[in-house]
Write a structure and sequence with these properties.
about 425 residues; alpha/beta; 10-stranded mixed β-sheet; 20 strands; about 35% helix; globular
Length: about 425
């Protein structure tokens, strides 16, 4: 059985956790393949909300082996706290496997992240200040510490001493900050974190490959979304890893031919956190209505999200980048009270129409959305369980989105609950 990839097609917060939870019922292994604890996935089970940061959404099922892949950056304290909270709520985390090749988020990463953002001033990127970017930067510079280093105190300390010499020089000379203690860091990571994480550290790639070879189901779960991708997003207002489907292959250790299904998740409208271009953004009462009806506040940060109408230009680009085979549209119920709904079908710059995403940032920052207006359905969809129960106007809206995107809509979310999702197609 080939692997399935779940990606976000907008700027994140599309509801990937909920769909991953649904699809996990058919899987044996669920892999988180990139990002860190800067991205939260929310799953609601029987009215109980689980806000996950590093653990794959499949951890809520007792038959799933949850995997943190090599493409993830791991903050040990956050991971252990998350495991403890889930255990206290009756969720068994003993099956968790953490790739030994995943990189560690260190205390100096978090301090440098916050200091850099502060010094950027009005040019700040909107980072969560969790140390994710600096951790990936050290990975690329080949000076990062990896999860497997927790299992060898000598190697861990040697690597730490080398990198901390550089980091402390930057902290002191650039930011006028006190140096960090190698002894203190080593104590926490080797004495406090390593013994608890050691039983979970292993060969994640081998596990995934063996599962696929045996015909088992493997689900690759991404964090953030397409337009936060380091290469393809609205740079520099992006994350520090590859969020498109190709990132699933490198971040989990599977080959492109081992994936046959790529599900793109999209809200029925668009949201964004932090700075950066947002062509269809709305303001005033309309923005407030979308925020309040959609509870648009960050899972981890609590920050209010920016909101806007559905953007077909972005969606077409996301579908192309990841070979999206189908779409899942979430939060359709948020639009239940709107008499009319707008969809952006193109951009305009000085009379020039763009149906594809402009490649140059200066153009993207200046575009004006070209909207088509569709009638709303003015009916409560939160209790819908079958496609035929959806209002015709809602179905028309979904068909319009599918036609614009060039990919069928197979699932529709109509509320936060685990079962508040309608299958339009198998």
């Amino acid at each position: 059985m080939p692997a399935t990839v779940v990606i976000g097609t907008q700027w994140g917060d599309e509801g990937k956790g909920k769909l991953t939870d649904l699809l996990s019922r058919e899987m044996q292994v669920v892999v988180r393949y990139q990002g860190g604890h800067n991205a939260g996935h929310t799953v609601v089970v029987d009215g109980e909300t689980f806000a996950l940061q590093l653990l794959p959404s499949g951890v809520l099922y007792p038959f799933i082996t949850p995997v943190i892949g090599n493409g993830v950056v791991v903050e040990p304290r956050v991971l252990l706290d998350e495991m403890d909270v889930l255990k206290s709520r009756g969720v068994d985390c003993s099956r968790l496997v953490i790739s030994g090749s995943a990189h560690l988020v260190m205390p100096y990463h978090q301090e440098l992240d916050a200091l850099t953002e502060r010094h950027l001033g009005k040019n700040k990127l909107g980072t969560t200040k969790r140390g994710i970017g600096p951790a990936y930067a050290d990975k690329a510079a080949r000076i990062g510490l990896r999860v497997q280093d927790l299992l060898d105190a000598k190697i861990f300390r040697q690597k730490l001493d080398v990198v901390l010499k550089e980091k402390n020089a930057i902290l002191a000379k650039v930011y006028n900050r006190l140096p960090q203690s190698a002894d203190e860091i080593a104590k926490h990571y080797l004495d406090d974190f390593a013994p608890r994480l050691a039983p979970h550290i292993g060969d994640a790639v081998g596990l995934v490959q063996d599962t696929l070879a045996a015909g088992g189901g493997v689900l690759l779960e991404g964090a953030q979304a397409t337009f936060l991708d380091l290469d393809h997003g609205t740079y520099p207002f992006v994350t520090s890893s590859n969020t498109v489907a190709g990132g699933a292959c490198t971040g989990a250790g599977v080959g492109p031919r081992q994936v046959d299904r790529v599900i793109g998740i999209a809200k029925a409208y668009v949201t964004r956190v932090g700075a950066g271009p947002f062509p269809t953004e709305v303001s005033g009462e309309l923005a407030g209505a979308l925020v309040e009806r959609g509870h648009e506040y960050g899972t981890n940060t609590g920050r209010r999200r920016r909101t806007g109408w559905f953007d077909s230009v972005m969606m077409r680009h996301a579908v192309r980048l990841s070979s999206v085979s189908e779409l899942a549209v979430t939060k359709l119920d948020v639009l239940d009270t709107f008499e009319t709904i707008k969809v952006c079908v193109a951009y305009d710059t000085g009379g020039q129409r763009h149906e594809n995403l402009p490649w140059h940032q200066s153009i993207l920052h200046e575009v004006q959305p070209v909207f088509e207006e569709l009638p709303g359905w003015m009916a409560d969809t939160s209790g819908v369980t079958r496609p035929e129960q959806l209002p015709q106007a809602a179905l028309n809206y979904l068909h319009f989105i599918a036609d614009q995107a060039g990919a069928p809509v197979t699932h529709v979310g109509v509320g936060p609950g685990r079962d508040q999702i309608v299958r339009l197609q198998p």
